[in-house]
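Posting this for the archive.
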Amino acid sequence: QVQLVESGGGSVQAGGSLRLSCAASRYISSRYSMGWFRQAPGKEREGVASIDSDGRKSYEDSVKGRFTISRDNAKNTLYLQMNSLKPEDTAMYYCAADLIYGLDRPPYEYNHWGQGTQVTVSS
């Protein structure tokens, strides 16, 4: 069983930056697709960014040009660099991983999840 632990969340003002990390408890093959999701109170969990086994990346429209997803397979860690943060980015952020192919996979296809890290952006 793969355990994922997110860190790096916090409270920032609009326009600020945060870097989220997601560390895996054991080696994760580069064949795993990984993604960042977020969930705001009263809303469904939505995909933010994903990276597949080929290193291709995809972003939700509202974060394009502001967020960057990356992975360091040697460190078994996934990252999300978030710049130019907006109040609407406020949510709990989760990372996920699984042996699935492709980008923008829905949450139910991922079996491995972290506990989440809170991001709060004030105006």
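The first strand starts at residue 4 and ends at 7. The mean pLDDT is 94.
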